Structures are given as C-alpha cells and as structure tokens.
From TrEMBL:
Signal peptide: none annotated. SUPFAM superfamilies: Zn-dependent exopeptidases (SSF53187). GO terms for molecular function: hydrolase activity. It comes from Halobacillus dabanensis. This is Arginine utilization protein RocB.
Length: 537
C-alpha cells in the first residue's frame, strides 16, 4: 500500500523527519538514520530482501543508510543522495522550542507576524508554506526520494534505485566520504552499473525575492584557505618593539573580505566573493604581551579555477596586506618616536605556503624530528579539523620563528571539488525532460543552472570541472596525512553524471527557513518520476 505519495502523506512524513533535531554531531543525527531504517525495514520489499537495506558505520560512531530497490536482474542504477543533518537553532530566539515542530511553529508565527520579514509574512499568509529547521534543507528532498523509492518497490521503474542518506553534510561531509566505499562495495556485490546520481537539495534564490525555479547540473566548489599570522611579541609598554599578530590579520581581512578578484564567472553564473568564517588570535590567557599568532579562514567558492590559480590570488592578497602592515607600522611609529629615536625592530614579513614552511623546518631540524613533533600532536589531538590544522601550522612556525614575522597560507577541511555534468548528453536529456514536463503539465518554467551554489555532497561523486590535481591542495593541507585522508582512489572509481532537482523553499540556514508544499509535494514527485523513466530508457 502506498503511504508516501500524496501531498498530505508527504507532509506527514516530512514532519516526522523534522521532529528529529538532527543537528550535525548530535545524538539525534544517529537517531534519524535509525528511524529511516525502521520505517523502511517494515516495507514488504525489505522484509523479503533485508540484505538490500543496510546501516554503515562511520569511524566516529555515526552511521549512514543505503536502501537498494532492484528491478529483477537489471544492472542500471540511479543513486539518490540526501543528507539528514541540519544546522543549529540558536537563531530562532524565543521560537527555539518550536524549531523542529513545523506545524506548531507555522501556527505560532500566524499569531506573531510582526516578528517576520515582509516576504516571509506573504508566504505564511498564503497557506502553502511550512516553517521549521530542516523543512527546506534538506528533509523535503529526502521525503520526495522516499516516495520515489516506494514507487520503485511497486515496480514503477525499469531499473534500480539506490537511496544513500548520510550525516554530516553541513560540516565536513564525512558521511558522504564514508559512503564512497559503501557505494563501491554495493556496486560490486550486486553487479550494478551506476548511470547517474540525483540529489534533492532545494533551489537557491539568486537574489532576494527571486521568483525563478531552478535545477542544477553541477555543484560549486569550496576551499577553506587559512592564513596564520606569526608576529613578533612585545610588551604593551614597548609597542614598537614587535609586530602584533592581530594587526597583521586585520589587514588580511581587508584584502580578503568580499574581494572581487575571487569572483569567478562561467557563462551567466558567478561565484560569491570570499567571506571570513573565523578570525582570532591564538593567545588564550591574558597578559600585557601582544599576541604572537593569529589565524583567519575564508570561504572561497570556485567553479573552473585551478587550485594554483586560487593560490596565486591568495598569495597576492597576502603581499598587499604585507605592504600595508609595514606602512602602518612605520607611519604610526613616526608619531611616537621623537628626534633621533629609532626602533631596534624593523619589520619585514615572510610570506610562505604551508609546504614551504614544512620544507624550511625539515631543512633546519631534519624530517625525522619534524615528523616526530607532528606525530606527537596527532596523538594528543583534542581539536576539530580547523583548530588542529592551525595547531600544526603554528607548531612549524614556532620552529622557524627567526624568520618571523610571517604569513603562512594553508588549507583546512572541508574541501568541495567543483563538479559538473552540464555538457553530458545523458544529463542534458534528463534536464530537458524535467523542463518540458513541468511546462506542459504544470505551466512551470524551470531554468537550468550549471552550479548549485549551496554546496552539496555531489562534489564527491560527480565529474570535476577544474583541471588541477588534488595534490595541489593536499600538500598545503597540514591535516592531510595527520589523521585525515582524502579517499582519492574511491572517488575516481565511482564518478558518475549528476543532477540536482529539488524542492522549493526559502531562507536556508535562517530562522525563517520554510518549504513551499504545493510544488514540492505535488509537482516535484511527478517531475522526478518522469525524469527517472527517461533515464532508464
């Protein structure tokens, strides 16, 4: 019996998923995967074929789910990709207790429309929108994929569907990285051929109030470059006896934040400029000594640029910051030092990549000693990937402090390769079918966009659109080989064409996150059904 097909049924299923507060790294992130297993194992298909429904553990105790529906002896398989985690709810303020109860939250907002932006009020009063954390990003997409899986169980399609539901998409994508070997194992065990992957991430507006509908044939790339500023400490009573790392990092912020040089244009698409995601000094106790080191990390998005091109832009920004830092120091010193007074400290700044700093340390102390120090840090590690990356760089900088002040460029996880199937005839045909069917059946215009700008797990399964080698990145990534490894071989072995056709929503990662129900649960399932039929022809 079909239980996930009508708008009301899908709304009920969505609410049951949203009620799991599956914030990344929480226990509920584990619980929702178990809930998915529970509701699927009760279906007749999996009662007869329990081997097709599996939980796969991650190294940290979390787990992902795979659910295969086979059509007889068919080999051709489409992979459906969803993530179950959501971001936190601190932004909900007084509505936090209702953030994971969509119906109740939506009802409460009707009583408090003055709290909402005007556009959100219009949506609320239309009666077609459901508010709540995860309604849009991306439990609605998972809900629709479960409805497609149900159709496959009933024999709807002439091929196989494989649902992959993963944790951790919102932080490090460890769920998708762990899914890669699982996908390879299932492919080999079941003798499958992966024709393509369909993701269900929601549409992202190109600008506030954007009325257009989109599907995506690729996913934007993201790097997280960091700069360690290693200054020269001094007493606050002798301000020109050193160089404050906080001053250094502030000038880097001016050179990086919203810098137009990083906006990449491909066709009619553009990447947003960089934003700082973290900036702080590394002095954790109070004293009148200036901070010796500070760090900043930036969200840098790209489409077809190479890592080398990104590195060049980042190092150019560091060079501009260097000139301004030195000029600032001398300009301010001119007001303080009088007559023949001079400072014994004359700042210069060395700019290095992490790889260059590592080689500098090895030249001084030998590879065995440098690796011994890093291995010790790995053994004692109690930090997340970004903080631990910073610790590894700072440790090397302290070994080479005689060349300070210095600015060191490095990268930290997460990294999302830019991927695209925009020119793939198979995906082009699927996109055309979606557009034609939506127009003919629902009078809805859907526009094809090459890159999904919200970041997605498709980055680890689709064809890369940049030509650079991953080693260009990993050699500048301190954590690579120190407790973190990219599954490069597995990624290459299961690359497949990709497309993202998802629900309609607004305000992802905001407290006004909401889902439009009529398109998402009445039209989208039919559009996707049509596309899947076409892909199995």
């Amino acid at each position: 019996m079909a239980v996930w097909q009508t708008k009301d049924q899908l709304t009920e299923l969505l609410c049951s998923l949203v009620e799991y507060p599956s914030i990344t790294n929480s226990d509920e992130e584990i619980a929702i995967i178990e809930y998915l297993y529970y509701i699927l194992e009760d279906r007749d298909y999996y009662k007869k074929r329990p081997e097709h429904l599996n939980l796969h553990p991650l190294d940290d105790g979390r787990q992902l789910l795979t659910a295969l529906v086979k059509k007889g002896e068919a080999k051709e398989t489409l992979v459906l990709i969803s993530h179950v985690d959501v971001v936190g709810i601190e932004d909900y303020g007084s509505y936090q207790n209702l953030a994971f109860y969509p119906r109740e939250l939506t009802q409460e907002l009707h009583k408090n429309t003055d709290d909402l932006p005007k556009e959100a009020v219009r949506d609320l009063e239309s009666g077609s929108w459901l508010f709540g954390r995860g309604t849009m990003d991306m439990k609605a997409g998972l809900t629709v994929q479960l409805s497609l899986l149900e159709k496959a169980m009933a024999g709807e399609f002439e091929g196989n569907l494989l649902l992959v539901a993963v944790p951790d998409e919102e932080v490090n994508s460890e769920g998708m990285l762990a899914a890669l070997p699982a996908l390879a194992e299932i492919r080999d065990k079941e003798n499958l051929t992966y024709k393509g992957a369909l993701n269900g991430e929601p549409m992202f507006s190109k600008y506030p109030g954007d009325p257009a509908y989109y599907l995506y044939t690729g996913s934007i790339g993201k790097a997280l470059p960091g700069f360690l500023c290693y200054g020269k400490e001094t007493h606050a009573g002798e301000p020109f006896g050193g160089l404050n790392a906080n001053l250094m990092v502030s000038y880097l912020a001016q050179e990086m934040e919203l810098n137009e040089a990083f906006i990449e244009k491909v066709g009619g698409e553009r990447t947003p400029p960089p934003l700082s995601l973290m900036q702080r000094d590394l002095k954790f106790e109070y004293s009148v000594q200036t901070p010796q080191a500070a760090v900043a990390m930036y969200n840098v998005l790209y489409m077809k640029q190479t890592i080398k091109e990104l590195n060049d832009k980042l190092l150019q920004a560091a060079q501009r910051a260097k000139a301004k830092i030195i000029n600032h120091y001398h300009h301010q010193a001119s007001f303080y030092l009088e007559g023949s007074q001079t400072s014994a400290f004359n700042p210069d700044i060395t700019i290095l990549t992490y790889d260059q700093l590592y080689k500098e340390a090895v030249d001084r102390y030998g590879k065995m000693e440098v690796d011994r120090r890093q291995n010790r840090l790995v053994k004692l590690r109690d930090q997340g990937d970004r903080d631990f990356s910073t610790t590894l760089v700072q440790s090397l900088a302290s070994l080479c402090k005689d060349i300070s002040p210095m600015i060191v460029l490095f990268y930290s996880p997460p990294f999302y390769p830019a991927v695209s199937s925009h020119d793939d005839p198979f995906i082009q045909q699927g996109a055309k079918v979606a557009m034609d069917y939506a127009k003919e059946t629902f009078d809805e215009d859907i526009e094809v966009v090459e890159y999904f700008t919200g970041l997605s797990d498709l980055s680890f399964i689709g064809p890369t659109s940049a030509t650079s080698s991953l080693s260009d990145l990993t050699k500048q990534m301190p954590i690579h080989g120190n407790g973190f490894e990219w599954p490069t071989e597995v990624m290459e072995s299961i690359t497949m064409p990709i497309i993202n056709i998802g629900p309609l929503g607004r305000d992802p990662h905001q407290w006004t996150e909401r889902l439009e129900l009529s398109y998402s649960f009445e039209k989208l399932p039919k559009i996707l059904t049509k596309v899947i039929h076409e892909m199995f022809k």
